[in-house]
Amino acid sequence: MDRSSTKRGDRWSRRDLLHAGAAASVGSFGAQIGARRARGENRMLRTPLCDLLSIEVPLLQAPMSGVVTPPLVAAVANAGGLGILPGILVPPDELRAQIRAIRALTSRPFAVNLLLHTALLPPADPAAIPDDVIARVHRTLNRFRQRLGLPPRAERPPRAPDFVDAAFEVILAERVPVWSIGLGRPTLEQVERCHRQGTKVIAMAATVEDARELAASGVDVIVAQGSEAGGHRSTWTKRLTPQHAAVGTLALVPQVVAAVNVPVVAAGGIVDGRGVVAALALGAVGRLLKATSDDTVITDVFTGMFARVIRNEFTDTFAAEAAPVLPPFAQALAASDVTAGSAAQGSGEFYALYAGQGCGGVRDLPSAADLVRRTMMEAASGISALSAFARTGG
Ligand SMILES: Cc1cc2nc3c(=O)[nH]c(=O)nc-3n(C[C@H](O)[C@H](O)[C@H](O)COP(=O)(O)O)c2cc1C
Predict the structure, then answer these.
(1) pLDDT value for 25
(2) Mean pLDDT across the chain, nearest whole number?
(3) Which residues, judged by CB distance below 6 Å to any ligand atom, belong to the binding site of ligand 1?
(4) What's the order of all strands across the beta sheet hosting 307-310?
(5) Residue 206 near residue 189 (C-beta atoms within 8 A)
(6) Beta strand pairing status for 221-225 and 200-205?
(7) Which of 90, 91, 99, 358 is the most exposed place for a label (fewest CB within 10 A)?
């Protein structure tokens, strides 16, 4: 791109800013940088996203369910990024308490994330699952139970709790600054209700078509989730195979930027950001630091939805036995005693170690605050180096 043709004084044209937003709004975290310092050091990296969400640096922390707590959300917010609280399957009263705990630690904007997967709206009835499929899934799970000293089980999993609507009402009632959505699309009415009270809406898509649908629903920001990303594929229905909705970040982000008219945030494989947060979160299972990018797989064996995790005995046994998998959420509920037992015993072999392909690049465990600062400084010096390269022609 010819920069001189697009730069007007100190201002970039809107389209360029959107592209800058896409490139810079990657990854995640970091440090307790004072607001002024952040502004000074990262002037180059302020993007429209910062103004839109009233944040200092264009970094979003991944809403990692089971991992991110109110203090971490507040630490990221205080560092100038957007901290996001995961709200999936959190009972509404507990969600309200967590939102208030964040507010006690920061006065800066933050987000609450809900999953709007169709299997939760309303929760699918497990009565429809054939008996023999349930029996075969438990046959494999019972091998894990035996290894963990847990009693064998054979029963039909319960229906997932119906929390989504109540959680949305809590987000509105608490006037949360940003509603973040994964694995689903909001209704026009939901977006309107948010906008009426000044709550911004961001939503994640793994394909260009889904990003277009999200844009049509009126969301303010779209997160383009590349296939490198750890955790679940952000689709509203389960795709046929793990190869569906699996476009790499490098290919997906520019196509989404071209397809929609709102700022785009890149997610997936950004090792100085969300991958590091996953490492902080999973630090107890020390192997993450030793994992290589090649250790992750996309599998549905933990929840019934496709997600990128670190391979372990659970994933390998399901694959080797070609065991069936129950529908979204039913699989997670059928295996919940195994995954909880594995975590309680400190074994990383029988629960989901959600991690992206970037995990191979994670080598240390800085604080959230340090990580925001380091990420922004690395990004700023990378941009300087590139412009020097462009000036001198290498
Ligand atoms: C441990 C873990 C838990 C996650 N939980 C959620 C979640 O609850 N809601 C959500 O929208 N995305 C969740 N994600 C996906 C992230 O939003 C994001 O797409 C991903 O972390 C980005 O890719 P990266 O892991 O390569 O940085 C999770 C990711 C990880 C690694």
Answers:
(1) 32
(2) 83
(3) 62-65, 67, 86, 88, 113, 115, 182, 204, 225, 228-231, 267-270, 273-275, 278, 281, 354-356, 358
(4) 231-232, 307-310, 296-299
(5) no
(6) parallel
(7) 91
User: Which of the residue ranges 86-90, 167-171, 294-298 would you say has the lowest mean pLDDT?
Assistant: 294-298
- In this prediction, residue 8 carries a pLDDT of 29
How many Cβ atoms sit within 10 Å of the Cβ of residue 195?
Answer: 13
Residue nearest to atom 21 of ligand 1 (CA): 230
Closest CA to 299 of 277, 320, 275: 320
Q: Tell me how far the alpha carbon of residue 230 lies from the centroid of ligand 1, in angstroms.
A: 5
CA gap 21, 85 in Å, rounded: 22
Distance 326 CA to ligand 1 centre (A): 22
Q: CA end-to-end span of the chain, whole Å? A: 16
Q: What is the pTM of this model?
A: 0.87
3-state secondary structure of 129: coil
| Residue 329 φ then ψ, to 5° | 75, -35
pLDDT digits (tens, 9 = 90+) for 9-30: 222 222 222 222 222 233 332 2
Residues 166-173, mean pLDDT to the nearest whole number: 98
In the chain, what are the helix, strand and coil shares in percent, each to the nearest 5? 45, 10, 40
Q: Tell me the torsion sign for CA atoms 283, 70, 266, 10.
A: negative
Runs of H (alpha helix) within the chain: 3-6, 14-24, 35-41, 48-53, 70-78, 92-105, 131-148, 164-173, 188-196, 208-216, 249-259, 274-281, 313-321, 330-334, 336-344, 368-392
Query: Please, what sign has the CA dihedral across residues 166, 116, 201, 376?
Result: positive
Q: How far is the CA of 180 from the centre of ligand 1 (A)?
A: 12
2: helix, coil or strand? coil
Q: Is-contact 202 178, C-beta < 8 A? A: yes
* Helix axes 368-392 and 70-78, enclosed angle (nearest 10): 40
Ligand 1, atom 17, lies closest to the CA of 62
Give the mutation target among 28, 64, 82, 293 for probing the ligand 1 site: most ligand atoms within 8 A of CB.
Answer: 64
